[in-house]
Amino acid sequence: MFVSAEIITIVISAVGLLLALGGTMFAGFAWCIRRSDSLRTDLVGVETSLGTRIDGVEQRLTARINGVEEKLTARIDGVEGKLTARIDGVEQRLTARIDGVEKKLTARIDGVAADVTELKVAVARLEGPQRHLIVAAR
Fold first, then answer.
1. Euclidean distance between the first and final Cα of the chain, in Å?
2. Please, is 8 exposed, middle or buried when counting C-beta atoms within 10 Å of its C-beta (0-12, 13-18, 19+)?
3. 8 Å CB contact between 130 and 136
4. pLDDT per residue over 6-64, tens digit each?
5. Closest CA to 106 of 114, 87, 37, 118
6. What is the 3-state secondary structure (H, E, C) of the chain?
7. Of 2, 20, 21, 83, which has the fewest Cβ atoms less than 10 A away?
């Protein structure tokens, strides 16, 4: 069997081409893996950095919210104290006025009761039996 030089050249060229393409693909795949590993390392660094920043922001916001909460609590307590004192003052004034009105009405009712008693006695005298010492003219 005789193989021509052109066929051997084509076969060797095809094998060389396949080896070159395979080597290039292997090198490209190796480069992708190396690149993804470096990206992963970079991402771990970024994640750590961002985690630290987020924790710092969270602590500052927590402190700020607690400060605002304390201020508002103190302010609400102050307003509550003022309103309680004001309501107590109004309640005392109203109680004093109601007591005064009650005393006045009690005095007036007692006066009316005395007047009614005197009126009843007067009416009873007018409508009662005739006096025995006075002779009635018939």
1. 187
2. exposed
3. yes
4. 999 999 999 999 999 999 999 999 999 888 888 787 777 888 888 899 999 999 999 99
5. 114
6. CCCCHHHHHHHHHHHHHHHHHHHHHHHHHHHHHHHHHHHHHHHHHHHHHHHHHHHHHHHHHHHHHHHHHHHHHHHHHHHHHHHHHHHHHHHHHHHHHHHHHHHHHHHHHHHHHHHHHHHHHHHHHHHCCCCCCCCCCC
7. 2
